[in-house]
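Review box. Two proteins, two foldings.
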Amino acid sequence: MHIKELDYLSPATLAEACGLLHSGGPGAKVFAGGTDILPDLKRGRVNAASLISLAGLDGLKKIEKRNSTQPHPSTLYPLPSTLFLGPLVTPDALDRSALVREIFPGLSEAAASMAANQVRGLATLGGNLCSAVPSADLPPSLLTAEAELVLTARDGERRLALKDFFLGPRKTALRLEEILTGILIPELPRGTGTAYDKFQARDASALAIVGAAARLTVKDNKIVKALVAIGACAPTPLLIAAAGEFLAGKEPSGQNFARAGELAAQAIKPISDLRGSAQYRREICRVLTIRVLKRAFERA
């Protein structure tokens, strides 16, 4: 199927992009790498009258540490510093960033696991989030990061916790005239480790059958805080509240990690398809949860 003729627009500023999105109405779509929207246009999954390229907006390509001036949703007060990720950052850039590897190695692992080299160099973090594909690799790690999104429209911006962003397969809380302009990760406490792992049918270009992310903060051999997120096993990526609540206050032991894995397997909502049965996915979820918890503890 061929893509029908449409207008291609390349704004030089964010304000111009927001204006074009406003004037273009429902038929205007923003994009960056195009690895999701172009196949969707060919398949007829997305209808568009115009494409607004964000590729020229260099401010959306940054990875940097910033001082926090606004309270984060997880606290009542501003946190000391925040890792800012621009939505045009590619998975390859995330994987190569020394800052990301230092602050949040689980996200670096998730980026490195995505697709083939060519796709990792072209796709974007923003596209991976806004496409809201249930098997996407980056959302589980960002959920355990308690990431916050900056969503910008012509009349201003708003902040939204990532956990409130995904509404269903390919459905998000992004409003018609909004552009994702930043992903904010609050500073992690001392003694925190993160990890990501996934199971796929083959090594190259395969979607996750199950993806698992974990974050542990440990002090005096006790787990102060635990977050576990699972992808590809429900209509949206899931934060497994039961696993985190169980681990809080306990020792970081193999027995406790095994119980958290069981709780994660019970909490997901997998389907059966050509890549695996629901029960198969539950078992893989259990195993991967234990694996990422152990790795996060080693890093903590």
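Next protein.
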Amino acid sequence: MKHPLHQFQFCPKCGAAHFAENNEKSKRCADCGFVYYFNSSAAVVAVIENPEGEILVARRAKEPAKGTLDLPGGFIDMYETAEEAASREVEEETALTVTSVQYLFSIPNIYVYSGFEVHTVDMFFRCRVNGFDGMHARDDVSELHFIAYDRLDPARFGLVSIRKGVEKLLSEIKNKA
């Protein structure tokens, strides 16, 4: 397996090319001594249900996995809590207003963006919204619709972490029955 920093060839502090693996989590610059530790980026995923108990799914309008199913969500901005990010991403992608956010679970992921591997930890949240009037696909979403849990097919979700999250949701529902 490649070192997670294999994509970084130069020291981000001084620009030197003598930037080599220090250990499994970092690279070190031989010129200036800077050590860069590689950490996951944080992302959020919203699980939103309608009154009938169906889950809101989105169709991806952009790569990666363009055209596949997804759940609303995205990266956490700097100086933003995960809960704030979940609310913001839902509003950006669906025009819905989140009224409550409850943490469910997290899944590690590698999100390939423009050919670059972004290691993430995707945090799943159950989000309640202030009604569904005015809901429409926006931002990087081309379509929104609800699917009953018994009709969800994880294979239709293009991103690995979302697929695994849907599998986990389905497993938890099955275990409750």
